[in-house]
Every structure is written in structure tokens, then in C-alpha cells.
Specification:
Layout (H helix, E strand, L loop, with lengths): L2 H16 L13 E3 L30 E2 L1 H4 E4 L2 E8 L11 E3 L1 E8 L2 E8 L14 E8 L11 E10 L5 E2 L2 E2 L4 E3 L2 E7 L2 E5 L5 H4 L2 E3 L9 E7 L3 E6 L2 E7 L7 E9 L4 E4 L2 E4 L6 H6 L5 E13 L1
Parallel strand pairs: 2-5
Antiparallel strand pairs: 1-22, 3-4, 4-5, 4-22, 6-19, 7-16, 7-22, 8-9, 8-19, 9-13, 10-11, 12-15, 13-14, 16-17, 17-18, 20-21
GO molecular function: hydrolase activity, hydrolyzing O-glycosyl compounds
Pfam families: Glyco_hydro_16
Organism: Seonamhaeicola marinus
Length: 304
């Protein structure tokens, strides 16, 4: 047996021992090891809360609240994250919706992350069909307020954000347009400064046109993060890459279902809650609630 055949066989055996291999990576010769603490096949009867935060350490939100007790479940081997309108439009800390989130207790810095996801249907009549929520698969760090000038305070990698219906440079996205962006807070002259994708297109912004409606069909969303580059994949196809200049803080692996227009308005770096009974467009979208996103698996690898 030739050395090449032996290498391929050993590579195959390694994948079988350590779990499924990524659909696509930058180098076919790389060997990957599954990080079990950050990966989940969602095959049990209930969520393994030893891997995921259930109540504490969840991201701060101003447009809705998290309630994993009522909004995260496992059904037929898939995690279901559901967004629900509060009963009788009851205001809870000036918000009107609650949703589910999976945030890993362990952290990720470099490696490969992948999930098979179906978005959340908001089936309403008219041109706003699908508007209102954003199924997301992302990585984000905590804030290092003591960072030195020029260093990263906070970093975020959006493996994918679906159904944002973004408006940018005169173009209105539709249900098939997905976002794969970078967010950053950096210390500049002693102050924490946000760097957002739309102001830093070349270094932080990626858009991709999916083949079909992601709220009704599963796709595999992946991202390779190494010391030099961040590379995005959809269904095993490379769709974008950016230099990794500042995304080096330990990040939590996260899948979540958040709100978007018309249920929130973005201002001062946050999605602010809109009372859906006092906003005509939001009121029309309420018939699409509750709605659920589905996560078939989350897998994370590190290079051997």
C-alpha cells in the first residue's frame, strides 16, 4: 500500500473515531478532531444543560427576553428554539416577546464550527411574509474593558444570520439573502469603539444568496477560524473570507432566534422593543407567531 493510501486510510479512521468531518475546509490535508464539549447532536429526550447555559450568562437583549425553560426543546433529534409573543401583550421589562437560545459553556478561539439549520417561518399574507425574526448561528466573546489601546474589547463572528431583510445601498434583501458578518469593539484612544459591518464592508461584511427559502429548508452553515483568516461556507461551498485581524478573544458557540423589524427598531447599537399592538406593521406580523427555528446539530472541531 502506498504512503498516500495509508495517509487517506488513517485520515478516514480518525474521522470515524472523532466524529463527522467538516463538509468543507480550506485545506483538504488538514486533520480535525471533534470538540465534544462544544458539539451536540440533540439526540436525547431533553437538552444537555451541562453543555449550554440555561438561565445565566446569556447575552443582554433590549428587544426581547430569553426563556429557555419554555422556548427550547428537543423533538425528533433536533433542537427547537421558539419565539413567542407574551400572553395578552404583557410588557416584561419593556419587552413583548420571549425566545430560546443555546450558548455554550465552553469557548472557541480557532478551529471549525458547523451547524445544520432550518430558519423560522412567519407565514403572513402580503409582501412582508417572513419578516420579524432572525435565526442566527454565531460566536461572541465577553467584553475586556481593560484592553490596551488598539486591542480587541469584544469580537463576534456571525456564521449566519437569516431573514434580516436588510436594506443596504438601495437594495432590499428578501428571504433568500443571508448575512455572514463580523462585529468588533476595539479600544481607540482609551475608548471602546464599535466597528459595524456596513461601515467596514471590505473587512467585516458578507452577503450570500441562498438557493431556496431557508425558513423552509435546511442548510449547513460552517466557518473556519484560524490565526490569519476567517472563512465561511454554506452547504460545503466557500462563500466568503476575511483576514483575521482582531477576532482572537475566546468566544461562546451560540444558536438563537432573535427579533427583527417590525418588532424591533435598531438604535444605539441595540434592537429596541416595539409594542406590536401600537405599530401597524408589527400588528400584521403577529399572526405568524409563535415561530420556531430548528437545529439538527452543532459540531465544532479543532486541528489535530
Amino acid at each position: 500500500m502506498t504512503k498516500i493510501k495509508v495517509y487517506i486510510l488513517l485520515l478516514f479512521i480518525g474521522f470515524q473515531v472523532n466524529g463527522q468531518s467538516p463538509l468543507k475546509t480550506s485545506k483538504t490535508t488538514d486533520s480535525w478532531k471533534l470538540v465534544k464539549a462544544l458539539s451536540d447532536e440533540f439526540e436525547g429526550e431533553s437538552v444537555n444543560w451541562k453543555k449550554w447555559f440555561k438561565k445565566s450568562n446569556l447575552p443582554n437583549t433590549t428587544g426581547w427576553l430569553w426563556n429557555n425553560e419554555e422556548n427550547v426543546s428537543l423533538v425528533d433529534g433536533k433542537a427547537q428554539l421558539t419565539m413567542k409573543h407574551n400572553t395578552n401583550n404583557r410588557s416584561d421589562k419593556a419587552t413583548y416577546f420571549k425566545s430560546g437560545i443555546l450558548k455554550s459553556k465552553g469557548t472557541f478561539t480557532t478551529g471549525y464550527i458547523e451547524a445544520r439549520i432550518k430558519g423560522a417561518v412567519i407565514d403572513v399574507p402580503g409582501p412582508k411574509n417572513g419578516w420579524g425574526v432572525c435565526p442566527s448561528f454565531w460566536l461572541y466573546s465577553d467584553f475586556d474593558r481593560e484592553a490596551e489601546d488598539g486591542k480587541t474589547v469584544y469580537c463576534e463572528i456571525d456564521v449566519v444570520e437569516l431573514q434580516q431583510f436588510d436594506w443596504f445601498k438601495g437594495h432590499q434583501d428578501d428571504i433568500r439573502d443571508s448575512d455572514h458578518n463580523l462585529h468588533l469593539v476595539k479600544k481607540v484612544d482609551g475608548k471602546s469603539v464599535w466597528f459595524r459591518p456596513k461601515k467596514h464592508i471590505a473587512s467585516q461584511m458578507n452577503k450570500y444568496r441562498l438557493a431556496d427559502d431557508p425558513s423552509r429548508h435546511y442548510h449547513v452553515y460552517g466557518c473556519e477560524v484560524n490565526e490569519k483568516e476567517i472563512i465561511w461556507y454554506v452547504d460545503g461551498v466557500k462563500i466568503a473570507s476575511k483576514p483575521n485581524t482582531d477576532w482572537y478573544r475566546p468566544m461562546n458557540v451560540t444558536a438563537s432566534l432573535g427579533l427583527r423589524r417590525p418588532f424591533v427598531q435598531f438604535s444605539n447599537n441595540a434592537n429596541r422593543a416595539v409594542n406590536p399592538l401600537e405599530n401597524e406593521q408589527a400588528k400584521k406580523q403577529l399572526s405568524g407567531m409563535p415561530t420556531t427555528m430548528y437545529v439538527d446539530y452543532i459540531r465544532v472541531w479543532t486541528k489535530k
